[in-house]
Amino acid sequence: MKKYPKPDELFKFDLDNMKLEDENFRVLIKRECQKKNMVNFENKCFCGIGETLDSTYTTAFFIDYCQLFDKNPNRITCDYKILGYSKRGRRVYEALVEHSIVDGKDKMKIDRNAVYDDGNENHGIGSAGLQVIIDLARRLGCTEVYGMSRPYTEMINSENYDLAKKRLRHFYEKNGFIFGDDGETFHLNL
């Protein structure tokens, strides 16, 4: 059985010697890395700075937790929660991903990938977060990242649903993902 590494084994940063343009970011990163998560009582793991279209929206990304599940003898999964914080310390991004080993093949499923806080969309935060997911998948030895394109739940009954579906498809395609024939499932081979 494959042993899952802890996030801090995958992402090692020397925060004291890391070059950051903004000292507030250094303080934010150190503070967030010292907080204990209430799910597993471990510290958050810093996993990088996401460059965005405008430096105002540069985001620090953390793995908030990982949980291991033995769903059946042929399928072991580990869930990760990835959070992104702005320079001002506001949470602007969240992703939930599942690393599965099915019959010896590693895959990463995106369950949630969302930018929070009005005004933060369309500045590259989601794409930067998606790159963190892809980086995590590569570090875990995954051969594929996949998911299903679904608009926010509040959009489901909205007249803007079709527009939201088109925007999501464009988002994943511009980040290198390919859609299946159903128009909803997407994947990226690594």
Low-confidence stretches: none
Give the overall pLDDT as a whole number.
83
Please count the helical segments.
4
Principal-axes geometry comes out as globular
Kindly describe this structure.
24% of the residues lie in helices and 35% in strands. With 190 residues, the chain is α+β, with helices and mostly antiparallel strands. The chain has an 8-stranded mixed β-sheet, with helices on both faces. The protein is globular, with a radius of gyration of 17 Å.
Give the topology, please.
Blueprint: H1 7-10, H2 23-34, E1 45-50, E2 59-72, E3 75-85, E4 91-102, E5 105-115, H3 125-139, E6 144-148, H4 161-174, E7 178-179, E8 185-189
Parallel strand pairs: 5-6
Antiparallel strand pairs: 1-2, 2-3, 3-4, 4-5, 6-8, 7-8
Question: What is shown here, in short?
Answer:
24% of the residues lie in helices and 35% in strands. It has 190 residues and is α+β, with helices and mostly antiparallel strands. An 8-stranded mixed sheet has the order 1-2-3-4-5-6-8-7, sandwiched between helices.
